[in-house]
Amino acid sequence: MNDIRLETRGLSRHFGALVAVNAVDFKLGAGARHALIGPNGAGKTTFINLLTGVLAPTGGRVLLSGRDISGKAQAERVKLGIARTFQINRLFRGLSVLENVCIGMAERAGVAPAMVHPVGKRTDVIAEAMQLLATLKLEDIARHRVSELAYGRQRLVELAITIGLRPQVLLLDEPAAGVPSAESHIILDAIERLPADIAVLIIEHDMDVVFRFAKRVTVMVGGAVFAEGTPREIEADPRVRAIYLGQTGQREVHA
Amino acid sequence: MTAITARSEPEIVAASLDHPAALALINRHRWRWWETLPWLAAIAFYFAFPDYLGFGTELLITILFALSLDLALGYAGIITLGHAAFFGTGAYTVGLLAFHGIWTEPITSLLIAAAVAGAVGLLSGFVLLRTRGLTLLMLTICTMALLEQAANMAHEYTGGFDGLPSLPIAAVFGYFEFNPLYPNTQFLYTLGVVLVCFLFLRTLIYSPFGQSLTGIRENVLRMHAVGSPVKRRLIICYAISAAIAGIAGALWAQTNEYVNLSVLSLDRAATVLIILILGGYGRLYGAFLGAVAYLALEHFLARIYPTAWQLGLGLLLVAIALFARNGILGLVDGLWRRLRPRRAAR
Fold first, then answer.
1. In the sheet that A67-68 helps form, which strands lie side by side, from edge to edge?
2. Which among B1, B29, B227 has the least Cβ separation from residue A118?
3. Does some domain include residue B235?
4. Is residue A60 within 8 Å of A225, Cβ to Cβ?
5. In this predicted model, what pLDDT tens digit does every residue of B11-30 receive, in sequence order?
6. Which residues does B151 contact at the CB level (< 8 Å), separation at least 6?
7. Where do the H-state alpha helices sit in B208-307?
8. Residue B29 lies in a domain
9. ∠ CA A35-A40-A43, rounded to 5°
10. Looking at the 3D structure of chain B, how many domains does it have?
11. Contacting residues of B for A86, CB less than 8 Å apart
């Protein structure tokens, strides 16, 4: 099992008496397409925040390719290859789509501290960004200001910035959230065409998306791993159905 | 289905660089013809208004001070109302060195002033830039007030409230003397220094470092998430801005040949902020327009209404805040876009 990209061991986070994430053991292999599901307040976003270093854990460890990164700051983890999208867009709204991608790429390529050469001289970065935008079909709007775009396109820019970081591990926090269903396919298409070797973890509520995209599914409930398996196994698990389809258990459970 | 990749073939690279968005970014730092105009205007001013060269010198120094603030406030989004701390540090550095007969050569004095002001910026930035918004605003005012009081209390060295008069400043390049009655040397010397500082700031702003500052202003959380060392960038930016403000203060002390507590006052810090907002912040040339507009207004309004000229200024600011958030330059920009037919509608 050398191909484990991201692993957590007993990862926990308490907020006072509240246990948001409780001793989670989790593994994400190279090329994984893994979905994380669970009811609201299950601790999914807190878990992602622990993986990216936005929050410090109160217990347990995070390992990237076997290396303990629990003490590393967010920016360092990005450099090591963990990138994420946010549930709510975090974009440079006043700048063009191209600049949004270039800013991230400049940080990744180590160009960003340079003070003397102008941005325009780094045609390698600009070309790479344009190419990425082309594969995401954002080329035509590359010059537009992000704030002028429809929400679905903004979601795609969020994804483009993250892909431009060339991550080993990509964490997608509800990538299609807030996107009208008529536009959501552009996001899903883009996710399906991500480079094969990236390990992808997606938080998603829409079960159609989960089944279309994921090869494995982890169910979180109350901050702990409740079940894990292939989408079919999870779909067939009566306990999961009970939790996911309504705690009252009124619905029929099909095995 | 093609996989999304970030790697590319040479032909595709060439093709993607022809895209208007790419060209806009590639050509953004190019010098445009109208960027020469302010400097031509300054030279024309020298010949056209020989009696106003003192005023012109003050205008140039104000522009430089506003430019330094624009780097921190307009580009990096560091909210500060205490930038006179660095202007004053620069001025007092030159004043103390000259008054006590330690160092009077003007150009090296400027460099020393820049280093001292930059160091104060670095140290205070290290502490202050942990905070944001109103807290940061208050702390910048506090830093400035502390320095002002320190200058006041150390009157043995600084002359306290009276300041340091009749500073002996050596001739520029050992040849061009500063003459208080005919400030030709002062004007040209200041013009040269401001031009050099401007070219430095312009280079910085169009560099990847400058772009990352814009990113921090636009969305600091996203900058963290793309792996940017945000705090380090802000501190470096703040120190550079402080050094430039220090040069502006040093020029003020040299060309006036005195220093007093006004260089560290809240009044000065507020004025430069008003100038930047008036001209348009985060736009490089807002500092020029704002300084010209403010000093011209001060000059003419004060003639018409010597007692209440600031009322006119206040009304103008209200109008700017209500109708032209991006200042005079924002208005010009808007007009330009409306008058020009949309080229290559992308």
1. A18-29, A4-15, A59-64, A67-68
2. B29
3. yes
4. no
5. 566 668 888 999 999 999 99
6. B88, B92, B158, B160, B261, B264
7. 208-218, 220-225, 230-256, 266-279, 286-304
8. no
9. 65
10. 1
11. 221, 225
Place of tokens 């007692």: B307
Q: CA B27 to CA A63: how far, in whole Å?
A: 43
Label each residue of B164-215 as H, E or C: ECCCCCCCECCCECCCCCCCHHHHHHHHHHHHHHHHHHHHHHCCHHHHHHHH
| Burial class of residue A205 (count of CB atoms within 10 Å of its CB; 0-12, 13-18, 19+) | middle
Q: Which of B24, B215, B222 sits opposite A143 (nearest CB)?
A: B24
- Select from A44, A89, A76, A20 the least CA-distant residue to A203: A44
Contact B39, B288 (CB under 8 A): no
**Residue A206 — left, alpha, or beta (φ > 0 → left; ψ -120 to 50 → alpha)?**
beta
Nearest residue to B254 (alpha-carbon basis) of B162, B199, B160, B189: B189
Helix axes of B53-69 and B266-279: crossing angle, nearest 10 degrees: 80
Strands (E), A116-249: 169-173, 199-203, 216-221, 224-229
Q: How far apart (Å, rounded) are the C-alpha atoms in residues B10 and A32? A: 31
Residue B259 has what DSSP assignment? B
Range of the domain at B223: 49-265
Go through the domains of chain A in sequence order and give each one's CATH number: 4-244 (3.40.50.300)
Contacts of B8 in chain A (CB under 8 A): 127-128, 131
- The span from the CA of A240 to the CA of B4, in Å, is 34
Quote ipTM for the complex: 0.89
Going residue by residue through chain A, which has 255 residues, state the pLDDT in tens, using 9 for 90 and above.
Answer: 458 999 999 999 999 888 899 999 999 999 999 999 988 888 999 999 999 999 999 999 999 998 999 989 999 999 999 999 998 899 999 999 999 999 999 999 999 999 999 999 999 999 999 999 998 889 999 999 999 998 889 999 999 999 999 999 999 999 888 888 877 888 888 888 888 889 999 998 888 888 888 999 999 998 999 999 998 898 888 888 887 765 444 434 333
Crossing angle for the helix pair B133-153 and B106-128, nearest 10 degrees? 130
The full length of chain B comes to: 346
Gap between the Cα atoms of B16 and B327, Å rounded: 35
**Nearest-neighbour CA in chain B from A159: distance (Å):** 11
Residue B31 lies in a domain: no
B247 close to B90: Cβ distance less than 8 angstroms: yes
Domain assignment present for B161: yes
Alpha-carbon Rg for chain A in angstroms: 19
Q: In Å, how far are B153, B264, B332 from B146, measured between CA atoms? A: 10, 10, 39
In angstroms, the CA A131 to CA A129 distance is 5
Contact A130 B204 (CB under 8 A): no
Residues 6+ apart with CB under 8 A from A107: A78, A165, B212, B226, B227, B228
